[in-house]
Amino acid sequence: MAIIHTNCTCGKAVEIRTGSDANSNYRKDGKQAVYPGEDGYCIFRCSQCLEPLHQTVPAFAHQA
Length: 64
Ligand SMILES: [Zn+2]
Hints:
mainly beta; binds zinc ion; 3-stranded antiparallel β-sheet
């Protein structure tokens, strides 16, 4: 239901999509992370610091 423009802790720009804006069923909470301009390519680890994005990006954290 939202597209959130944010950054990894290393500064890499990422885009978090939720609800109907996401094209992913990988996660139960429906969140999807993509790089801006790379529509539809799901990312799970930062390509710059290699940390899992659900740990470095609060908007992409798993919901309980
Ligand atoms: Zn990073």
